[in-house]
């Protein structure tokens, strides 16, 4: 009946608006049961369960063999790591796979059979699950004794496919690769030419005593190429030039030219190209997100205009305001946006909305999130008004910064004076008395600010919350110190009591005081601009960080499978020889590696994939030729490409904020919060009505009346 049709149109409009808010595609089933399933799937509970499942399956690498559950990574001192029994982690994996199977089943059903075959991500999802389950069965059949587990390398895919923004970022990176490849090819040419020059310049001579450069770094083509590749990263600089420089100073010209051309020109040229190209592709991605939002809003308008009570007009469609209010009551959206749209509807004197008016209402979603601070208390007493003016003035905050700086200076003076003293010779009275005085001032400052600003206004500023929290922690620590060790006095060096010694308590207090000094950042505009840029990167570029996790995870798991157990303590030197015969990996003394890298068992542990140590292994020829492919690939992806991508995004965010700062000085009581989509809002193009309607008519499951 008409009532059932109206309910269906209302539910369709709700889902389309929620799709627009989240930049989701509207190409999914729109019948009543599918809409219920769709909203359930994208509910907070369901998405939280899916995110938890992805986190669990990624975290399994830390407890699977070889386990990382040890205090130290030094194989000489650590106790045997706990390895879970066969079947424990496999059972957890199976539960995760069941969740993923349910996830891909729901997604495949919602998009429909026709869209399923067009969706490469869904097909890759199913293929990944099939391979992972097959490998899981193989593991159980071998009683978990197999060394290679393919499904571990595939785990990051589950994180990748669950984020639409991560997919867009990956697509942008993939589109940028041809431009990157041209510069990487130029780097390869640069490296090859200088390798040939080096082999000619440092060729073997009759005097063996003068051939140290040839013997250590340029003995053959692979060694020469490796030495200059590591020099491109500056990891072996200036070690690689010392033998030649000792023989003749003029040899330094070769290394200077190589470093200047490679590091100063080509690497920075790569950064410039990546910034220019990736910004363009990211802009296109954000443009498509804007199109999705406009398309979702227009789809909601079209279905609402099909309601029976909607006025019939052959020329133009309209939506009843009451129907839109009914929809907004059920839509999951930001409270601020919902209130702003509802206020606009109340102010509007018309009963129907055209397509343009309907779209304009939802432009509230594109605006900056503005948060206004609560007002200060309104005191009637003249004395309290003067107090409020004095302690609410910015100069009072500047005084607090000066006091905090004085505290830092005093701590530095005491630390310098006591640097060479033994613990038994140190007198903690002076430092304890200083801490007591300054903490009391911080407490007084916080109370006076609360008096002047009121609790709500005080807590509305992040800097005040940061300052107040550290002040309370410092006060609690100081009270605990006095309760255990008494008040400061000359010769204040009591014996160890409780969980922490007096010196540990004092050090902890001083570290918090130093950390508290960061309160000066909001008062320094240029520093605040840099910090807010970094915070925005953390908040808004989670997709980029997610892909970074995927890359690190995949290389770490690959490194574990390839090189696990290759480095062992000196006591097992015979084992090293046996291991090398089978895997052709490390064949040098273990301590030389430890002295350079600072830790042991590089590939026996998941967290120990450190690029500096990998390049050091290359420079000392600690690995066979084929193993170098792994390390060079890691360097290219993580250092050459990924670091430059991060620099490009950092520059884009910083330049955008700088331009906004030049055009608009922010008000003291208003904070603006931007998303990554809003970074490019000023340069995005609005889609035309023809484009929107053409796309809507191509919807596989929605039949429009016009």
From TrEMBL:
A GO CC annotation recorded here is: late endosome membrane
Its topology with respect to the membrane? Answer: Multi-pass membrane protein
List membrane-spanning regions: 45-63, 92-110, 122-143, 180-202, 253-275, 395-417, 429-448, 469-488, 508-531, 543-563, 605-623, 629-651
Q: For this UniProt entry, what is the primary localization, expressed as one broad class? A: membrane
Catalytic activity, as annotated: Ca(2+)(in) = Ca(2+)(out); Na(+)(in) = Na(+)(out)
InterPro entries, per database record: Ion_trans_dom (IPR005821), TPC2 (IPR028798), Volt_channel_dom_sf (IPR027359)
Gene3D superfamilies assigned to the protein according to its UniProt record, in alphabetical order: 1.10.287.70, Voltage-gated potassium channels. Chain C
- SUPFAM superfamilies given in the database record: Voltage-gated potassium channels
- Where does the record place it? Late endosome membrane; Lysosome membrane
MF (Gene Ontology): calcium channel activity; intracellularly phosphatidylinositol-3,5-bisphosphate-gated monatomic cation channel activity; ligand-gated sodium channel activity; voltage-gated channel activity
Identify the stretch annotated as signal peptide in this record.
none
- Write out the GO biological process terms: calcium-mediated signaling; endocytosis involved in viral entry into host cell
Residues annotated as domain Ion transport: 55-278, 397-654
Give UniProt keywords alphabetically.
Calcium, Calcium channel, Calcium transport, Endosome, Glycoprotein, Ion channel, Ion transport, Lysosome, Membrane, Repeat, Transmembrane, Transmembrane helix, Transport, Voltage-gated channel
Stated family: Belongs to the calcium channel alpha-1 subunit (TC 1.A.1.11) family. Two pore calcium channel subfamily.
List the protein's name.
Two pore channel protein 2
Give the organism the record lists. Rynchops niger
What's the gene?
A: Tpcn2_0
């Amino acid at each position: 009946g008409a009532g059932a049709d109206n309910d269906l149109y209302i539910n369709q409009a709700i889902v389309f608006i929620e799709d627009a808010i989240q930049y989701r595609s509207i190409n999914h089933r729109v019948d009543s049961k599918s809409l219920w399933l769709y909203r359930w799937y994208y509910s907070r509970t369901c998405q939280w369960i899916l995110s938890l499942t992805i986190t669990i399956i990624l975290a399994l690498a830390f407890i699977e063999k070889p386990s990382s559950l040890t205090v130290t990574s030094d194989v000489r001192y650590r106790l045997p790591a706990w390895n879970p029994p066969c079947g424990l982690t496999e059972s957890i994996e199976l539960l995760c796979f069941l969740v993923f199977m349910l996830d891909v089943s729901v997604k495949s059903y919602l998009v429909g059979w026709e869209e399923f075959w067009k969706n490469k991500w869904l097909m890759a999802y199913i293929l990944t699950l099939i391979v992972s389950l097959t490998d899981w069965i193989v593991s159980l059949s071998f009683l978990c004794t197999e060394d290679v587990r393919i499904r571990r390398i595939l785990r990051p895919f589950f994180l990748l496919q669950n984020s639409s923004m991560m997919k867009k970022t990956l697509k942008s990176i993939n589109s940028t690769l041809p431009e990157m490849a041209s510069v990487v090819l130029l780097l390869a040419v640069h490296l090859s030419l200088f390798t040939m020059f080096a082999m000619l310049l440092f060729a073997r001579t009759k005097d063996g005593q003068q051939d140290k450069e040839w013997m250590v770094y340029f003995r053959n083509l692979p060694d020469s190429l490796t030495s200059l590749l590591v020099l491109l990263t500056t990891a072996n600089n200036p070690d690689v030039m010392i033998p030649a420089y000792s023989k003749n100073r003029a040899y330094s010209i070769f290394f200077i030219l190589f470093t200047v051309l490679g590091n100063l020109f080509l690497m920075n040229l790569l950064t410039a190209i990546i910034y220019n190209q990736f910004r363009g592709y990211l802009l296109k991605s954000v443009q498509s997100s804007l199109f999705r939002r406009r398309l979702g809003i227009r789809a909601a308008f079209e279905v609402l205009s099909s309601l029976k009570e909607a006025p019939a007009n052959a020329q133009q469609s309209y939506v009843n305001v009451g129907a839109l209010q009914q929809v907004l009551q059920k839509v999951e959206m930001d409270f601020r946006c919902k209130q702003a749209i509802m206020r606009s509807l109340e102010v509007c004197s018309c009963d129907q909305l055209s397509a343009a008016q309907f779209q304009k209402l939802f432009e509230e979603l594109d605006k900056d999130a503005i948060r206004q601070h609560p007002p200060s208390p309104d005191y009637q007493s003249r004395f309290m008004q003067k107090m409020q003016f004095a302690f609410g003035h910015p100069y009072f905050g500047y005084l607090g910064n000066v006091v905090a700086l004085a505290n830092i200076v005093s701590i530095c003076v005491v630390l310098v004076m006591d640097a060479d003293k033994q613990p038994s010779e140190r007198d903690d009275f002076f430092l304890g008395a200083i801490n007591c005085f300054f903490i009391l001032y911080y407490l007084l400052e916080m109370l006076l600010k609360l008096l002047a600003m009121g609790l709500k206004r005080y807590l509305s500023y992040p800097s005040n919350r940061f300052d107040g929290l550290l002040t309370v922690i410092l006060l609690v620590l100081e009270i605990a110190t006095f309760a255990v060790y008494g008040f400061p006095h000359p010769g204040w060096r009591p014996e160890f009591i409780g969980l922490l010694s007096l010196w540990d308590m004092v050090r902890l207090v001083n570290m918090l005081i130093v950390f508290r000094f960061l309160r000066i950042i909001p008062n320094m505009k240029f520093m605040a601009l840099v910090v807010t840029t970094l915070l925005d990167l953390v908040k808004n570029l989670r997709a980029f960080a997610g892909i970074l996790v995927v890359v690190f995870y995949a290389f770490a798991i690959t490194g574990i499978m390839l090189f696990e157990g290759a480095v062992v303590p000196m006591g097992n030197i015979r084992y090293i020889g046996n291991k090398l015969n089978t895997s052709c990996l490390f064949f040098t003394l273990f301590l030389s590696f430890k002295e350079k890298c600072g830790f042991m068992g590089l590939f026996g542990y998941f967290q120990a994939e450190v690029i500096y140590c990998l390049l050091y292994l290359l420079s000392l020829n600690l690995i066979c030729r084929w193993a170098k492919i792994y390390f060079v690939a890691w360097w290219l992806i993580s250092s050459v490409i990924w670091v430059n991508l991060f620099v490009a995004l950092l520059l884009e965010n910083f330049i955008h904020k700088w331009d906004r700062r030049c055009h608009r000085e922010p008000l003291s009581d208003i904070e603006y919060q931007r998303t990554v989509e809003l970074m490019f809002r000023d340069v995005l193009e609005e889609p035309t009505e023809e484009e929107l309607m053409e796309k809507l008519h191509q919807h596989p499951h929605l039949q429009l009346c016009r």
